[in-house]
Design a protein that fits this description.
The structure holds two protein chains of two kinds.
Chain A lengths: L1 H37 L6 E2 L18 E3 L9 E5 L7 E12 L7 E8 L1 H7 L2 E7 L2 E8 L3 E8 L10 E8 L3 E2 L6 E2 L1 E9 L1
Antiparallel strand pairs in A: 2-12, 3-4, 4-9, 4-12, 5-8, 5-12, 6-7, 6-9, 10-11
Chain B lengths: L1 H28 L5 H26 L4 H18 L20 H23 L5 H17 L9 H4 L3 H13 L1 H25 L3 H12 L2 H7 L5 H21 L2 H17 L4 H14 L5 H26 L19 H12 L9 H9 L24 H13 L1 H5 L10 H12 L5 H12 L2 H7 L12 H4 L5 H8 L6 H7 L5 E4 L11 E4 L4 H11 L10 E19 L6 E4 L1 E6 L2 E2 L7 E5 L17 E6 L5 E19 L7 E6 L5 E5 L3 E4 L6 H11 L2 E7 L5 H6 L1 H4 L1 E6 L3 E6 L1
Parallel strand pairs in B: 1-2, 1-13
Antiparallel strand pairs in B: 3-9, 3-10, 3-12, 4-8, 5-6, 5-9, 7-9, 10-11, 13-15, 14-15
The chains are: A alpha+beta, B alpha+beta.
Chain lengths: ~200, ~750
């Protein structure tokens, strides 16, 4: 009888703890299910159909020319031109601007630049070469302090309406700031394309 | 008049079927309740059962008028055959009308109740013109009615909310349309008022109970919401019903009451997620008050009964959206339908009092001004602090504790509606405190009634506050044509006829702001309601807003490396989302042509990863949650490729710091560089057209544009650039077709 009683107790013990273990297993399974549901991800997806970029132009935005005093002048500047608003801005080592033409035709590249007295005293005469989309268009020699105007016809085959045109300037001599090493080429008032 | 009869019948039928189902249930449970308690709690529980039955019909697509009527008739037949009174034996020695003295004073309060009842009834009977009622509440109902069930292909955060009340609205709507649904909600308002009276009678505060009913009914936000197709009064009635039954259970410990309490708690969750607080309160209360050995069993009964009302909604959302708690908890349960960032903005917007300069303006707005809080609870509730004196009595402590718990959502939502569940408890506690002061309850109740009179409210409330503004008898009786009334009260209703005439039935129409979708038989994609709406808003903003316009290119140069996959990993953090319009990979200065064998992946919001590779600068992949370390956009070439450059075209993003990584042969991501050159991007022209083409690709062919929308003027002036045709222009909006 005693043996039976102990056996009965062991059976109850086994059932009790077996149930507890089963409960824990169920709880873990439920947690695992919840956890896996939490981690839902899209996975790897196929590359989509490629959209056309040839959708014409938008109104406004970058146009054929800009004055440095224009409110949207920053939109035309690609690099190396000062950000202080005003009638002119400093052109640094490799200044670059961008423009867009709305039509084809006989366009001329124009720019108004200036060499101030104070930098001219250091650099002497400066030769500024200008490029359209990396192609050299011409150069201007600034042999005295003061303002200079660039105005030169651009070959029609260089120009494409609607596409961005990048205009870069390269000065052969720069004024170098003794304080921060900044290289100043010239003062830029306006640039762009005109018919 | 036939229309009015149909409206009344639709509402009465829904209420009657609910009551019948409740009576059958209570006939089984046999709780010991007074007959009036039995009737009211039976209605609430029966409404839960009816809601559940309609849920099942919606799942299987069998939500038809004939099914509702047949099922309702059967339910009522069974009720009359098998159910008794629905009440068990009464508690010893007590009357439900105990303590009912001072009948001349009560008569004044009853008179106020009767007048308010009539005002609200007429308003509920009038054509439904409330903002949310004519918007998403009845919009969802109308959509389900058209499709005879849940509309699984419709994406809106409001359609993911639990819709227990909308299930009842659907039955009423099938017979009497919108106003029937509003009347069903009105029935919950009346149930709440009667429950307050019953509570007072049962627990020895009859005058306080009557006073509380008057105070709650006289609250302007209660009156407005209760006579509209909303769900706030359903929630308030259920929460108070749960509280009421818990008090009875606390005294008598009837096990069957816990089943009823659980069912009401579960149905509460089905009506509005915030009712989860009711379940938390109930669980805590039962745990606290049950005998130690009984706790587990009691809580198991409670949980099982509550699950009946809760699990269907959780299961629906888990299967449908991949998020059991949609439209919330999207960070935990990512899905392509609601972005975590949108959820965060939505919740922040709800918490924010727009146009309030000082915190002390909040009580003014909530009590009587109501301009920025979407209504107001009424100036009489300025006396609410007096209710704290009820803490001296056990019943008062119970009431105020419950009010405090049920008021938690009001901290998270500035709308006065979120205080509605608190008002019954505060009103009762206030009544308990003031009932010892002669004539205080009557005079205060009378003043509350006067303050709730529409003409009186216009003297002290803000002109734009959401409230009852009149008693539209002619509109309610349909003497005034419904269309004329709705034209006067819903700004977009005038567009209905035109939209339905010029757009096909399955048309998807994008609108930045909400629309009276309950009345327009078309599918609207709203800008803030879904990931699709967010996408549409994004692409329309891309050509116009510098925060969206891709203006710069980040160029990462690498030593030539052979790899199967490359990814850009975010290592910075910022307040905004991280987004990339286009990701390119190059070699020797040329972009690698995208191949059909390539695969893309992102985390988070991987579903939008292809948008960074679609060659459209109007679309973009966005994390749609706050920028943080570990987010990535990856590209798998399908085979080994040699690359030496990665560039990202995107809008300027403060805080972003990107690292380029490639996959090695052992499947590990190897960081290569985190330094880049940033240059202005020559954004391609035609962004406006690209935007509308992206919408068209998502099936959106029409745009409903308000004059105040950020792109309205530009679209009107540059319609040709957008590639849209203006089909119709009203005083406030235009409808465009995308060509």
């Amino acid at each position: 009888m005693a043996g039976n009683g102990r056996g009965d107790g062991e059976w109850r013990y086994a059932v009790k703890y077996g149930m507890a273990a089963w409960g824990k297993t169920c709880a873990l399974a439920a947690l695992n299910l919840l956890w896996s549901a939490c981690g839902q991800e899209a996975g790897w997806l196929a590359i989509p159909a490629q959209q056309s970029l040839n959708l014409g132009m938008d109104p406004g935005g970058v146009s054929a020319a800009v004055r440095m005093s224009d409110a949207d002048a920053d939109d035309y500047i690609v690099r190396d031109i000062g950000t202080m608003p005003g009638a002119w801005r400093w052109a640094f080592a490799h200044p670059e601007l961008r423009f867009r033409l709305r039509s084809a035709g006989a366009w001329r590249l124009t720019a108004q630049i200036a060499i101030p007295e104070v930098t001219f005293r250091v650099t002497g005469p400066v030769r500024v070469t200008y490029f359209v989309d990396g192609r050299k268009l011409g150069a201007i020699r600034c042999d005295h302090p003061g303002q200079f105007v660039i105005d030169q016809a651009v070959p029609a085959e260089w120009l494409a309406p609607g596409r961005y045109l990048h205009v870069t300037f390269e000065a052969d001599r720069h004024w170098v700031s003794p304080e921060d090493g900044a290289q100043l080429s010239f003062q830029l008032f306006q640039a762009g394309f005109q018919k | 008049m036939r229309q009015v009869l149909a409206i009344l019948f639709g509402a009465a039928f829904t209420v009657a079927v609910s009551a019948a189902l409740g009576r059958i249930l209570l006939g089984r449970l046999k709780p010991r309740l007074y007959w009036e308690e039995s009737a009211l709690c039976g209605f609430l529980a029966g409404a839960g059962l009816l809601s559940l039955a309609v849920f099942v019909l919606c799942v299987v697509g069998a939500a038809h008028w004939s099914v509702f009527v047949a099922g309702g008739v059967v339910a009522m037949g069974v009720c009359f055959r098998v159910a008794g009174t629905g009440a068990g034996p009464l508690p010893d020695g007590r009357s439900s009308a105990a303590g009912g003295r001072g009948s001349e004073r009560n008569a004044v309060l009853f008179l106020v109740l009767a007048v308010l009842f009539l005002i609200y009834f007429v308003n509920a009977l009038a054509p439904e013109a409330s903002p949310d009622g004519s918007g998403y509440h009845m919009g969802n109902v109308a959509r389900m009615w058209r499709r005879h069930g849940f509309v699984w292909d419709y994406q809106s955060m409001y359609s993911y909310l639990s819709q227990g009340m909308e299930m009842l609205f659907l039955v009423a709507y099938s017979i009497g349309r919108h106003a029937s649904a509003a009347l069903v909600h009105f029935a919950f308002l009346i149930t709440l008022a009667l429950l307050l009276v019953c509570y007072g009678r049962r627990f020895g505060f009859p005058r306080a109970g009557l006073f509380a009913a008057v105070l709650v009914l006289a609250s302007p936000v209660v009156g407005r919401a209760g006579s509209s197709a909303y769900n706030d009064l359903g929630l308030a009635a259920l929460l108070f019903g749960v509280f009421y039954l818990l008090q009875i259970w606390d005294e008598e410990k009837q096990p069957n009451l816990l089943i009823l309490i659980g069912l009401l708690s579960g149905f509460g969750y089905g009506v509005k997620y915030t009712a989860v607080l009711g379940l938390a309160y109930t669980t805590g209360f039962v745990w606290w008050r049950a005998a130690k050995g009984e706790r587990g069993r009691n809580l198991a009964i409670l949980a099982a009964a509550a699950a009946v009302g809760i699990l269907p909604w959780i299961a629906r959302n888990w299967i449908w959206v991949g998020n059991p708690f949609a439209p919330f908890a999207n960070r935990w349960f990512p899905n392509p339908y609601v972005h975590p960032g949108m959820e965060a903005m939505y919740l922040a917007d709800l918490r924010h009092y727009e146009g309030i300069a000082h915190w002390w303006d909040v009580p003014r707005e909530l009590l009587w001004h109501g301009r920025v809080t979407g209504g107001f609870v009424g100036p009489v509730f300025a006396l609410a602090p007096i209710s704290l004196l009820a803490l001296r009595r056990p019943a008062g402590r119970q009431l105020l504790l419950a009010g405090l718990v049920f008021g938690i959502p009001a901290y998270l939502n500035t709308g006065a509606r979120f205080l509605v569940p608190v008002l019954p408890f505060v009103s009762l506690a206030l009544g308990m405190v003031l009932e010892c002061v002669p004539w205080a309850l009557v005079s205060l109740g009378f003043m509350a009634g006067i303050a709730a009179w529409p003409g009186m409210m216009s003297r002290y409330a803000d002109r734009t506050a959401w409230r009852i503004t009149g008693v539209p008898v002619a509109a309610a009786l349909r003497i005034q044509p419904t269309a004329k009334y709705l034209n006067e009260h819903l700004k977009d209703y005038s567009l209905k006829a035109f939209i339905e005439r010029v757009t096909p039935p399955r048309a998807r129409i994008f609108s930045l702001a909400s629309v009276a979708e309950a009345y327009v038989d078309r599918t609207f994609i709203l800008g803030y309601e879904s990931a699709l709406g967010n996408f549409a808003t994004d692409v329309l903003a891309a050509p116009l807003d510098n925060r969206y316009l891709p203006r710069e290119r980040q160029r990462f140069r690498l030593l030539p490396v052979a790899t199967r996959a490359v990814r850009v990993l975010q290592t910075g953090d910022g307040a905004g989302f991280w987004s990339i319009n286009e990701m390119h990979v190059g070699r020797e200065g040329n972009e690698l042509a995208r191949s059909g064998g390539w695969r893309v992946k992102a985390w988070p919001n991987g579903w939008d990863a292809p948008l960074a590779f679609d060659n459209s600068y109007a679309t973009r992949w966005s994390s749609w949650q706050q920028m943080g370390y570990g987010m990535y956009l990856a590209l798998d070439f399908g085979k080994t490729q040699v690359i030496d450059e990665v560039w990202l075209d995107e809008a300027t993003q403060p805080g972003s710091k990107v690292q380029v990584e490639v996959l090695d042969a052992r499947g590990r991501w190897i960081p290569l560089t985190d330094s880049c050159e940033t240059e202005p991007l020559d954004t391609p022209g035609g962004l406006r057209r690209a935007a509308t083409l992206a919408l068209k690709a998502k099936g959106i062919r029409y745009l409903l544009v308000r004059n105040t929308d950020f792109f309205a003027n530009d679209m009107r002036e540059n319609a040709a650039f957008w590639g849209v045709t203006e089909l119709h222009r009203s005083e406030s909006a235009s409808l465009y077709l995308i060509q």
